[in-house]
Amino acid sequence: MGLKFTINLKNKLATYGLENFTKVHRNEQETSFFGSAKLPLDKRINGFEIYSTEGVREVIEPLKSDFFRISVCVKGTVKTRIGLDDYTYKRGSMSFTYPNQIFSVHTRSDDFFGYYILIDSTFLTETMTYARLSQEFKFLTIGGRSFLNLRESTLNRVLDLFKLIDVELKANGANRRLAIQSYLKLILIEVKRNFEIKSNKSIVSQKHTLLTLNFLSQIEQYFLSLRNVSDYAQLLNVTPNHLNKTIKKDTGNTASFYISRMLVLEAKTFLRHSNKSNQEISDYLGFGETSSFNRFFKRMEGITPIQYKSSI
User: Fold this and answer.
1) Are 7 and 274 in contact (CB under 8 A)?
2) Which of 38, 106, 184, 259 has the smallest CB count inside 10 Å?
3) What CA–CA distance (Å, rounded) separates 33 from 205?
4) Please, which residues bridge with residue 89 across strands?
5) pLDDT tens for residues 175-212?
6) DSSP secondary structure string for all residues of 121-179
7) Coil, helix or strand for 201?
8) Model confidence over 279-307: pLDDT tens digits?
9) Among the ranges given (34-43, 214-223, 301-310), the one the predictor scored with the smallest mean pLDDT
């Protein structure tokens, strides 16, 4: 069955920004001196925070955040859920979550230790456009890979860069923000190289077009209110036909498939993590009648919402 969390929210999962996230992921009595943990306010870097797992909460219940998260395990194990997928960290495990992605942490070993970075999107795009970012570092985008295991040599170089960021963060050197952005980019390059060496194939060759990535990003924001491909085509300033053709060429699926998939993922989240009734979930997702929601869910998943919930 696994560990279950209950969401005590009226409408949706809690969503956090960097400004109000500390209380969620750090213990009240902070014990770490690494990175941003006890950093004076005048030394903070807007849009960027870095921590060790010393002082992190034992459990982080399912939530969404409006920033990117990069984490790496040095020793021990911990279980996490990204979206609806479960992962177990061990030495060398690294994960990436993007804004509005569902994330939770539970069941860690006594010797678990690692580092993590929280980044506002503007911090990333100050030195690189989103188009370049999505092409160079696909694992940071919606269509990318959330979890990977680093080779030992790559892990050691990444850990050295985390420590250099800590040193730079606490110093008062000129161009401190730019230096940290440069170290962060080096971390992303090391991860990209790890992908390429393991698969002997550049992840850039597997990239989606920028239109596809923007479409997937828009769905994350508007899936509850916009259900038609034409709505997203208007947002992206293209014709519905062009959008459909591009999505189909890039992914093998239709644009409407991804709209429906986002609705299913949200439904699964509530079925898995809350005590809401089918009618409440149906109302929240905009289906109105429970029968319509049931038919939609079964068409997408092959089972009814009740069958899905009983199988968890």
Assistant:
1) yes
2) 38
3) 41
4) 78
5) 999 999 999 999 999 988 887 655 433 333 344 577 88
6) HHHHHTSS-HHHHHHH-GGGSTTS-SEEE--HHHHHHHHHHHHHHHHHHHS--TTHHHH
7) coil
8) 988 998 888 889 999 999 999 989 999 89
9) 214-223
